[in-house]
Amino acid sequence: MFAIVEARPLARGIKLFVIKAPRIARKQRPGQFVIVRLAECGERIPLTIADADPKAGTVTIVVQAIGKTTMLLSMLEAGDSILDVVGPLGKPSEIEKFGTTVVVSGSVGTAMAYPTARELKRAGNKVISIVGARSKDLLVLEDEVRAVSDETYVVTDDGSYGQKGLVTDKLKELVDAGGVNYVLAIGPVPMMRAVANLTGPKQIKTIVSLNSIMVDGTGMCGGCRVLVNNTSQFACVDGPDFDATQVNFEVLTQRNNMYREQERASIERLQADPEAELKKLRESNRAHACALEPVEVSHD
Amino acid sequence: MTDKVPSNNPLPNKERIKLPRQRVPEQDAQVRAHNFCEVNLGFPAEQARQESLRCIECPKPGCVDKCPVSVNVRAVIDLILAGDYLGAASKVREDNALPAITGRVCPVEDQCESGCVLGKKGEPVGIAYLERFVADWERETGQFGSPVSAPATGKKVGLIGSGPASLACAGDLIQMGHQVHVFEALHELGGVLVYGIPEFRLPKDIVRHEIEVLRRRGVVFETNVVVGKTVTIDELMQEEGFDAIFVATGAGLPKFLKVPGEHFNGVYSANEFLTRVNLMRAYLFPQYDEPLYPCKDRDVIVVGGGNTAMDAVRSALRLGAKSASIYYRRTEKEMPARVEEVHHAKDEGVHFEMLVNPVEFFGDEKGNLTSVKCIRQELGEPDDSGRRSPVPIKGSEFVVPCSVAIIAAGTSANPLIQSTTPGLAVTKRGYISASDDTLATSKPGVFAGGDIVTGGATVILAMGAGRKAAKSIDNYLKGSDQRKEEIQEAVQI
Ligand SMILES: Cc1cc2nc3c(=O)[nH]c(=O)nc-3n(C[C@H](O)[C@H](O)[C@H](O)COP(=O)(O)OP(=O)(O)OC[C@H]3O[C@@H](n4cnc5c(N)ncnc54)[C@H](O)[C@@H]3O)c2cc1C
Ligand SMILES: Cc1cc2nc3c(=O)[nH]c(=O)nc-3n(C[C@H](O)[C@H](O)[C@H](O)COP(=O)(O)OP(=O)(O)OC[C@H]3O[C@@H](n4cnc5c(N)ncnc54)[C@H](O)[C@@H]3O)c2cc1C
Ligand code: SF4
Ligand code: SF4
Ligand code: FES
């Protein structure tokens, strides 16, 4: 059982959680993720570790509510607990002195890119961040990103804040101006694909973090496989970071749609009575906590 | 000669051998093909007695020879005849820590029952059914001959993985007075017993019960710890004070066929399919959140001929598949699955297509699987394994429509522990090297056993390894430094 010690909305439909998980806090590196299962009847979903405090034994995750599990998670508050949190999983992001780096992110992707941006900065890189969102109320962690970046550009689709347009418009300007050595892009698949198409032909090293569907996160099921350089790779152990020019984004999109119908049904059931689902989750976790009380051991 | 053995069997031998083998009550094939309840219902007491009466109590029982952990079958049967079921269960537990499980999943036709003398002319004694009977009786009546633990030694042993190897090892180590801490990567304990073998063959409650017994005896279980990621073996030994480690992480990695089109939606590894269905309870969707690519009213093929393939195909059938077929590259004779499961599958309506191999999967514009192209094969010369290897027949390709294809073509070693534990030697195929005699690895204080050493094997072999490891860990912990060195030297790499 993993206690939520802090829960705070960051933007519309996006919430930050600080969770007690001492083992994970001690070991995590930027780019790694955890897999959580909210309660007994829940599914396992991957979430990037946005931050960690090894001393306090906590990890931070930032969640966008898009389906049943993330919506239910977003209803939880400090004092609630999550049944299972496992990690840190995946390979840490590659951190080197590349020179001038551009970190491109879209909405919740900003929370996923932030720890890597910070680490790139620490490693002595020039970090330029391009933070995108559909509109102002979907923007997260702007201050945090500014604090670790040499330059920060905010771009919104509707122009409600920062520059109007797409993150790739800004990226194109920077790339055309020359001198970019490394690009990291994290966000929706079409955005990552557009970045790859832009930087690939210019031979700029470009990394994307792939959000394929996962179950165990340890290489055991193969459900997270992605086509990279025309061979199957497991995003949970071989990634989630991959060379953008080698990724087959079409297959990624198709595989991410695999459970569309069931996902829709789950959302509808949750929305029919969200409070009942929340109550069920809390009761189920409380029962679990009791069952796992330590037992007295006697040796004669 | 046999008549001189003290016995609770009232019948003379010539009467015994005339008795027919008892048929185990089963759920009707047509009914069970649509539910996940247990297929095999087990003997009631009277039938267990009838079956026990058949045993002629051989002075040199072949059944014991052929059991990988030498369960004293003859003594167990005699205790059943005496009506002492608790005693019989304790007798089994002397060699086999999880009888309710082995009694359900042991491939007896290759093990104990293959050694039973009655099998030479007729049918062998139903040994696994009897083992299951006493274990179930014990559990259902709430009794357990819980052994008394030795005085605490103050030594702490970490077990990695919670499959049968680890559970058997935990039971012995706790008995020896050591502190035992089991680390499991998944959220549920039991290894393949919970994520692989389906409910209809091994109800999860039975596994849970065995784990609860261990917990009550003092074993500490910690789930959600991926050793190698969450913590390393060196950290466990140097920072968390573990005096010895037993690695029993199983043969977890799925093998794909490496043919075009395996990325299509609907192509699963058996590991993923069974994990979704069993561990995540996708068969109970929507009460459980886990989605599964729909099998209902669709054609499902399963590639492979082992227990995993049988479990997958029978699960698909229960999920409402229009057709559920096994595609195997050799013939039925070579299929490694338990004979009973093959029979069960056939009775339930699974279709078997032998000597075929998929060469390509096809899908539609949405990326959903639509069909598979296969090639027919014939058996050629025997290969290294002694089995005749299949050779494709040129021009015999054919295409069959299917919406779900499940690949059960074997597994390989998960490299996680090996790659994060300096000094731990591995074999050419990536499994952990361990001494046959002691299961010690190349790293002092670290032992390994079960599928991670042998490659995919059986539940009872994994348990046997767990018990062997417990014994040598105990020696290691009690031993002088010299003894420790001897154990290390016994390791051949
Ligand atoms: C390595 C990795 C890191 C991630 N980090 C974050 C993060 O920090 N914050 C965040 O908000 N989201 C993150 N995601 C995405 C997040 O896992 C999905 O949004 C979540 O699983 C959706 O579940 P749901 O039930 O709410 O939605 P659903 O309605 O079930 O699904 C919506 C979409 O999410 C994807 N999805 C569904 N189930 C899974 C699953 N088991 N595993 C992965 N994807 C799935 C599918 O593409 C699906 O179409 C990450 C994904 C990956 C692979
Ligand atoms: C579908 C299927 C059906 C089978 N049917 C039969 C049958 O009918 N009869 C029979 O005798 N045998 C059968 N087998 C084989 C049998 O189940 C295995 O041989 C046996 O379970 C091996 O036991 P084990 O303890 O070595 O490993 P496993 O049972 O594989 O357990 C290993 C455990 O370690 C955990 N783990 C892995 N890596 C780590 C890590 N880094 N940190 C922490 N934990 C980790 C895993 O999550 C898992 O829980 C079947 C196997 C499968 C897959
Ligand atoms: S453990 Fe398995 S092989 Fe041994 S006697 Fe029991 S059923 Fe037979
Ligand atoms: S071999 Fe068969 S008949 Fe002989 S003791 Fe064993 S079970 Fe009984
Ligand atoms: S999530 Fe199962 S192998 Fe990656």
Description:
Helices cover 33% and strands 30% of the residues of chain A. With 300 residues, chain A is of the alpha/beta class. Among the domains of chain A are: 2-89, Beta Barrel (Elongation Factor Tu (Ef-tu), domain 3); 100-209, Rossmann fold. In chain A, helix 3 (109-122) packs parallel to helix 4 (142-148) and helix 5 (167-177) packs parallel to helix 6. The radius of gyration of chain A is 20 Å and the shape is globular. Chain A starts with a strand and ends in a 9-residue tail after the last helix. Helices cover 35% and strands 16% of the residues of chain B. Chain B is built from 21 helices and 16 strands. Chain B has helices at residues 13-16, 29-32, 45-53, 62-66, 73-81, 85-93, 99-105, 112-115, 118-121, 127-140, 164-175, 192-195, 204-216, 233-238, 270-279, 307-318, 339-348, 416-420, 451-454, 459-478, 481-489; strands at residues 156-160, 179-183, 220-222, 244-247, 253-254, 267-269, 299-303, 323-328, 351-354, 356-363, 369-382, 388-392, 398-401, 404-407, 411-412, 446-448. In chain B, the strands form 4 sheets. Chain B has a 5-stranded parallel β-sheet. Chain B has a 5-stranded parallel β-sheet with strand order 6-14-7-8-9. In chain B, strands 10, 11, 12 and 13 form a 4-stranded antiparallel β-sheet that branches. In chain B, a hairpin with a 5-residue loop joins strand 11 and strand 12 (388-392). Chain B is globular and about 65 Å long. The N and C termini of chain B lie far apart (47 Å). The relative contact order of chain B is 0.12. The model of chain B has no long low-confidence stretch (mean pLDDT 91). Classes of the chains: A alpha/beta (300), B alpha/beta (493). At the A-B interface, helix 1, strand 8, helix 8 and helix 9 of A face strand 5 and helix 15 of B. The complex binds flavin-adenine dinucleotide (2 copies), iron/sulfur cluster (SF4) (2 copies) and FE2/S2 (inorganic) cluster (FES). Residues 214-217, 219-224, 234, 236 of chain A line the site of FE2/S2 (inorganic) cluster.
